[in-house]
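COMPLEX REQUEST
Ligand: 2-(butylsulfanyl)adenosine
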Amino acid sequence: MAESPQKKRHTELKRLIHHHNELYHTHDKPEISDYEYDRLFQELLDLEAKYDHLDLTDSPSKRVGGEAISAFQKVAHRKPMLSLANSYSTDDILEFDQRVKKFLRKDAPVEYFAELKLDGLSMELIYENGKLVRALTRGDGTVGEDVTHNVKTIKSIPLKLKSKNPPDLLEVRGEVLIFKKDFIKMNEAYEEQGEDTFANPRNAAAGTVRQLDPKIAASRPLKFFAYALGEYQGISFDTQKEITEVFSQFGLPTLEEELTVKSDEPDEIVNYYKKIEKLRPKLEFDIDGIVIKVNSLPLQDDLGLVARSPRWATAAKFKPEQAQTVIENIVIQVGRTGALTPVAIMNPVKVGGVTITHATLHNQDEIDRKDVRIGDTVFVQRAGDVIPEVVAVNHDKRPKSAKPFKIPLECPSCGEKAHRGEEDAVLRCENPVCKSKIKESVKHFVSRRAMNMEKVGDRLIEIFIDQHLIEGFSGLYKLKKEQLLNLERQGEKSVDNILKSIEASRKTTLARFIYALGIRFVGEQTAKLLADHYVTIENFMKTSQEELETIPEIGPKVSASILESLKNKSFQKEVAKLSEMLEFEKSSRSTEGPLSGKSFLVTGTLPVKRDEAHEVIEKNGGKLLSGVSSKLNYLIVGDDPGSKVDKAQSLDVKIISWDDLLKML
Ligand code: IVH
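STATUS: Structure written out below.
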């Protein structure tokens, strides 16, 4: 018997949704927007409601989505973590109110509590007798993954509830996320280190929580907001609003009250939706809508749930702000590390108040997946409200002549064949004297956080190299006034300023210099560590694999990259030239001493001044850290210490007194 068209479509939808579920939940790499996903899901639900000959046994409508991945211990939730029915229009808010009243057989108004729908990763924190004992991801809704080791590194999450008389059990549900400004900073740092960047804050947060090594989570700016209850014992609640108030008293981060609303007037909820949609670009973090909950917990119980979502709550989402524009060209940029990045040049278009003219297409796989071609009309949006992104092609508008785009296998700058490493997503130009690579390296060398030559801009560097005034970093310090005066549009005054800013950069720190050299994977933080460890450039240049391995924060990938640079003859020559020209500030830190190789942090009031304590530690070869993490060896505790002690205990960091430290000397 022939398959009905509905059945065929149903099978296709099941396959598609399973596929996108896995991409989203298991691999943190969604390929379609939430909006597109929700449309597919709605189509599936509509089909299932209309036809009864469909096979529902493996339908995603029966589950929340996302298999728990295997690297973590799987733990069943005491109460399932549900998902929310959602919609994209204000009419649906009114319909939700109607449904609730009808189900409760109520004519009188029902009170709602509405708040932001945070666009992060849902998380369950389990507190037993006030102590954080476990953190679980949602997983498939029934079974989550134990990610306690990573969640404990989130500074705003209390390891102990603030309460003299904590409940026997409290399961706190909420969202782990990364603020927009932190996300941008973090991506910039990865970009500088030649590492892959994240598409948006949500992916970055989800990717971080799923790391096996808690050091990675500790180094990333994760935040948490609590908004719902799981199981609880030894405490009671009457309303949804009260839940957030009690959470807040316990020291758990919750959304500011101004960002929520309580009302029994559906129209007020609609107004709140409109207000938040306007506010959205100004918020510090990503949201994708609002969540409306019946405020009374007894009524929530009466309402219960259907399939995958509670009847007492719904999400009203915002449509992502998108626009359409034409791709005029795809150009290949050569980065400092030789990475060839395709960039779409587009007809300028406004999205969310900002004009977009170009967007990175990342790599060939990404171009193939979206099948983006020159001449295509595309939908663009700003990922995480910030980074321009090509979402999809409008196939109806594809010109007949448009051909699939292939990144050329040669470097567009020097013409040498580019290579793609085993673990690399991008092609790289490996020619050490490629002009574009040199230009980008010099731009990095002079940048603010590196050598900080304020008056030497990108344009000038391109001219210097195109006109053969310099070949590398050291050439900058040999530039003559006459050479610069010969350049177009350079007057006496601006030339003096340029030379002054080059001159001023000679006085620098070893950390800045190591960072400026642009060794792959050596960002600012790593450069500081290296400078702290080696103290002089000579020590650094003659280091060995064995010595690099003694620095706890330096992994095999970074260490291999450093060694590769150090054994390169022209790198050696350049560093030798530069070290003659530069003057490094003396480091107060000694690398030798009884505390060498150990890290310390002070908390509370010590018998000596804080500064003195720090000096003693550094003089004896110890290293100071800025926060409690698994990297910390010793927490030195004085009078009235704060929450650092709890955190240290939970991470098995040794806790000592100032006297204990003096004994170590
Ligand atoms: S309440 C029964 N409140 O949305 C659901 N969820 O689609 C109880 N979410 O997995 C959840 N912000 O990750 C609730 N203010 C908020 C939320 C919120 C975001 C997420 C949550 C959940 C998903 C449901």
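REMARKS: Residues 82-84, 115-118, 122, 138, 175, 227-228, 291, 310, 313, 315 surround 2-(butylsulfanyl)adenosine (CB under 6 Å). The longest helix spans residues 5-26.
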